[in-house]
Specification:
Length: 528
């Protein structure tokens, strides 16, 4: 059995990566809420890019990276992630929690965009909607664990209580996720309008959606009445933009061009474009770990990859270094399991990986045909998926690859399992736990409201997760998680590749924060 990781986790160990991403600035002092200094900014707009159009503006049903990003602007969560792996209040001012329950005190000065005061009852109803299986939210199990939580409000005491069906020690961290953002009554009363972003009173966060042009741009406007800014341990320099303008579907090389020509202010760029900013004092480029990238097999009945021999044969063709070069210009972070090496209880080496053996793979795969769906966001123009396709083609297999934008890919893999046999999964593990990633391949499938994209039940993995969550000793918890990781690697449920770096470039006069190594776009500020 592998020894336990000595790191403190993706959240806590990211202390070294908990960077304030700031451009060269000439900004003046700020208020505690990061809402501005004594001198006015030279602009009131921040321009940034999205990988693709959001699939929804309903925070509780967010599926893709772009959905998470826009939800963070529009909806406040009860808890936020700060630096050093710590938590700070969002809509909650304080809280207590155990492995089976939590009590949160809700602040009294927060309002919805239509002026409705956000009470504990409003918070409880929103979280209940998020947790409801009928919502088909594949993040609910990550927040509340197995079974249905009981969420109640006491408006007189100003508190929300959460009682869990089974022990789940990661509740507070889960409540920092953008998908748990509190949806106001107007939004819950009009779910169709909520998804479109057309219900202005739905929003609890600092911004409202004021313009939505599919494939063109989206504008979010700062609420003049907003007061519920988090109290960050390190004050944010600068002023929140009055308007944040998102441009969807822009090629990342084009984004780099627009940053350099002043048409974009802050945005993700591709690893291959980082050299274009090196030595330029007018830009800051910072890289933090973002998502674990691994090959994932569809193991639902009827898929060819219910056959373990086929999964093993594909795994025998995969090479981490070659994938890293193709997709990330060798800037990806090598993984030894389904989670980053910094996550508590991660395996310390790759001794449980399937060994490469191209000849053995050819004997199994020759003449086979597979359906693959891939996102164009993993590698330039989907180069990560193309690498897999070519590796299988060289072994005599045919891979019908469907490359689509990130939002379409998320929809297909999570709701249309008949459309694919294998995919490259990008797993943004925002809570920094082994369980968060294991539930991508175990438990209730996504099309039935769970988190399991792979579709195989993997009851043994669920049992190990339950053992880990109920353990009171860190050593016992890690032993269970290690057994689960070894199982999925030896069964070739996944083939780990690398950790995708999130590389953010900012022009001089703009800043963004990455609390605990997780880029938070809602912390963008104008500092010039």
């Amino acid at each position: 059995m592998q020894g336990r990781s000595t790191f403190l986790g993706a959240a806590a160990a990211a202390t070294a990566l908990t960077l304030l991403l700031t451009g060269c600035t000439t900004g003046t002092g700020t208020t505690g809420s990061g809402t501005g200094g004594t001198a006015g900014p030279s602009t009131d707009t921040i321009r940034t890019a999205l990988n693709s159009d959001p699939t929804t503006f309903n925070a509780a049903k967010a599926n893709a990276k772009d959905d998470y990003e826009v939800a963070r602007f529009l909806f406040d969560t009860v808890v936020r992630r700060d630096g050093d792996g710590k938590f700070i209040g969002g809509l909650a001012t304080d809280w207590t929690s155990t492995a089976t329950e939590a009590s949160l005190t809700i602040r009294k000065d927060a309002t919805c965009a239509d002026g409705t005061v956000i009470t504990p009852t409003i918070v409880a109803k929103s979280l209940t909607y998020f947790a409801d299986p009928a919502t088909k939210n594949n993040f609910a199990k990550l927040v509340f664990g197995p079974g249905q939580p009981t969420i109640t409000a006491d408006d007189a005491a100003g508190k929300v209580s959460v009682k869990l069906a089974q022990p789940w020690s990661e509740l507070i961290g889960g409540l920092t996720l953008a998908q748990t953002g509190i949806i106001c009554p107007a939004g819950l009363a009009d779910l169709e309008g909520l998804a479109k972003g057309s219900v202005q009173g739905a929003f609890s966060g600092p911004y409202t959606l004021t313009k939505a042009g599919h494939g063109v741009s989206y504008d979010m406007t700062l609420r003049e009445d907003y007061k519920a800014w988090p109290k960050w341990s390190k004050e944010l320099e600068g002023t929140p933009a009055k308007t944040v303008r998102f441009f969807p579907g822009v090629n990342k090389t084009t984004v780099a061009n627009q940053l350099l020509t002043g048409e974009m202010d802050i945005s993700d760029i591709a690893p291959a474009d980082t050299a274009r900013f090196e030595g330029n004092k007018d830009y800051t480029v910072t890289s933090v770990p973002f998502a674990g990238i691994f090959l994932l097999f569809n193991q639902r009945p009827g898929s060819p990859f219910t056959d373990p021999a086929l999964r093993k044969a594909v795994a025998q063709l995969m090479n981490q270094q070659a994938f890293n070069a193709a997709a990330y210009a060798n800037k990806g972070i090598p993984y030894t399991s389904i989670v980053a090496p910094t996550v508590p209880c991660a395996l310390e080496d790759n001794s449980h990986f399937t060994k490469e053996d191209a000849e053995a793979a050819k004997a199994v795969l020759a003449g086979k045909t597979f359906k693959m769906v891939g996102t164009t966001s993993i590698g330039p123009n989907g180069a990560g998926s193309t690498y897999v396709q070519e590796a299988l083609r060289a072994a005599g297999a045919t891979v019908n690859l469907n490359l689509v934008d990130n939002g379409t890919w998320a929809t297909m893999t999570q709701t249309k399992p008949e459309t694919w046999d294998l995919t490259i999964q990008g797993d943004a593990n925002f809570v920094g736990t082994v369980a968060a990633s294991l539930t991508r391949i175990a438990g209730v499938p996504t099309e039935k409201g769970g988190r399991n994209i792979g579709g195989g039940e993997n009851a043994d993995i669920l049992a190990e997760i339950a053992t880990a969550q109920s353990a009171t000793d860190e050593g016992k918890r890690c032993e269970a998680y290690e057994r689960a990781q070894i199982s999925i690697l030896e069964d070739n449920d996944i083939v780990p590749f690398v950790g995708e770096p999130q590389i953010v470039a900012q022009r001089a006069g703009f800043s963004i924060q990455a609390p605990s190594g997780i880029v938070d776009y809602a912390t963008m500020r104008i500092t010039k």
